Amino acid sequence: MGLYDRYILPHLIDMGCGTKPIGKQRQKVVPRAQGRVLEIGMGSGLNLPFYEPERVEMVFGLEPSEGMRRRAQPRVEQAPFPVEWLELPGEQIPLEDASVDTVVLTYTLCTIADAPAALAQMRRVLKPSGRLLFTEHGLAPDPEVSKWQRRINPAWRLMAGGCNLDRDIPAALREAGFVIEELETMYLPSTPRFAGFQYWGLAVPKRPSRNKPIGSASRRPASKARIRWHTPCISRIRNAAGGDGSAPRRSVYFGTDA
């Protein structure tokens, strides 16, 4: 690890991930954590003030960077619950199977070199009844934005500690065996669009399918994620076909969550 990675990059990441809009994103998911919590990529401890002490038993902070752990230490010492460092990358989580109630993933999946392996580890240590809470930036739905994300990404990854601009976060979670129960998206205000498309929500481990007789029907339909798409001025557009055969109706809800 060079001087840039050890001393300069942690400071830049702390500044970049500590902006007010990103703080609002953290506030949407981190307070929902409960029980034994595993935070992936704790970094400089920016999430610690957002945990609800009465809901949290302890937090395992997975963070391989010595520089980030050093910056986090004052926040760790002030935390009103136990924090235990795990000094390994996301692909190597040193915890037992089904041992944590909540996995918290905030602005981390973009930097993990082997994201599928890391997500498999998160699923392994998460209890069957556990939840993965996430807020991440990633691949934008607009072709013009995603085109620039892919163009910029090689240089960005070198400068930003391995951060990727163009990862499809929902696809990565589903491919790793998670079911997304809640998903919301938007462009982060006051942020360049190529780095500002946000995904946040809740996912749970996919339950193993049970063997059923051929031709048998499911007792209940598979649950669908609640998905909301946000823009700076329009927070959700819902299309629904009219029951009388009329043209689809469109309901527009104004406002923003950030």
Folded structure, characterized:
- The chain has about 260 residues and is α/β, with parallel strands linked by helices.
- The protein has helices spanning about 5-15, 20-30, 65-80, 115-125, 145-160, 170-175, 195, and strands at about 35-40, 55-60, 85, 100-105, 125-135, 180-185, 195-205, 225-230, 235-240, 250-255.
- The protein is built from seven helices and ten strands.
- α1 crosses α3.
- The protein starts with a helix and ends with a strand.
- The relative contact order is 0.13.
Reconstruct the topology from this structure.
Blueprint: H1 3-16, H2 20-29, E1 35-40, E2 56-62, H3 66-78, E3 83-86, E4 100-106, H4 115-125, E5 126-137, H5 143-159, H6 169-175, E6 178-187, H7 193-196, E7 197-205, E8 226-229, E9 234-240, E10 249-254
Parallel strand pairs: 1-2, 1-4, 2-3, 4-5, 6-8
Antiparallel strand pairs: 5-7, 6-7, 9-10
